[in-house]
Amino acid sequence: MEERFEADPNFKEKILSLVKSIEKGKLVATIPSACLMCTHDRQLLSILNHCIDITHQLFYYTVFSTDTSIDLPAVASDKSADEVANFLDKIGLSEYAETFKDADISGEVLLDADSEMLSELSVSSSLHQMRIMQLFNRELLGATPTYSRDHLNQFLQDNKLDKYASKLEENGIDGDMIVNVDSKIMKVVFKEIGITSAVDIAKICSKYKKFVSS
Q1: Cα-Cα-Cα-Cα dihedral sign, residues 11, 13, 14, 18
Q2: Model confidence over 130-143: pLDDT tens digits?
Q3: Which of 11, 132, 140, 153 has its CA 20 to 30 A from that of 73?
């Protein structure tokens, strides 16, 4: 059943505060009790998805049910190169672990990673670059995906795109990535994993975002 939320008179100001915090490289969630972030509060999710583009990074976020502030750079600075290597092993990309360790890539360095830096570290796959950056931010936040695999598969089935369900799962692409990552990057990733239809790629990228915000 869809949850109902009362309007919060300070909603706009709190969203603007969140945007400013994102611009500073921090994740700050200040959500009132009458407007908690959850899978049912899709209007708020849609607004925050647009906010995320400000960072110009593959940036994963979540919002907690209580007022809290997470300084990602501070959290990342506690991650050693060995812990980063363990993280890569955890997400199934252990082939890069030794290279990262040899280059002394700590959490603080990885948090600032972009495509160019990861390419220098022999991560040439757009899929792997995206997963490393997305999942590392998720790891720092101790977060779990907002959208379940069943949720994504239901969307694919409803839109006659279910032939891609197994391909997305096999490559570790979840609904949160489709929502949060820039569509131009996702199009490159989809083509890399063998989804060659430009029409179907456009449908997945655009329609899924509408699906979760409707």
Answers
A1: positive
A2: 999 999 989 888 88
A3: 11
Domains of the chain: 11-70 (no CATH), 78-141 (1.10.150.50), 149-213 (1.10.150)
Which H helix or E strand runs over 130? Answer: helix 126-141
**Residue of 27, 23, 33, 30 whose CA lies nearest to 3:** 33
Nearest by Cα to 209 from 143, 159, 144 = 159
Structural contact between residues 35 and 5, judged by C-beta atoms closer than 8 angstroms: yes
* Single-letter code of the amino acid located at 60: Y
pLDDT per residue as tens digits for the range 96-136: 999 999 999 999 999 989 999 999 999 999 999 999 999 99
User: What is residue 31's three-state secondary structure?
Assistant: coil
Indicate the SS3 state at residue 27.
strand
Q: What is the spatial distance between Cα 118 and Cα 120, in angstroms, rounded to a whole number?
A: 5
Structure tokens at 13: 């100001």
Helix (H) or strand (E) holding 70: strand 68-70
pLDDT tier at 157, thresholds 50, 70, 90:
very high
> Using CA atoms, how far apart are residues 109 and 210, in angstroms rounded to an integer?
34
DSSP state of 142: T
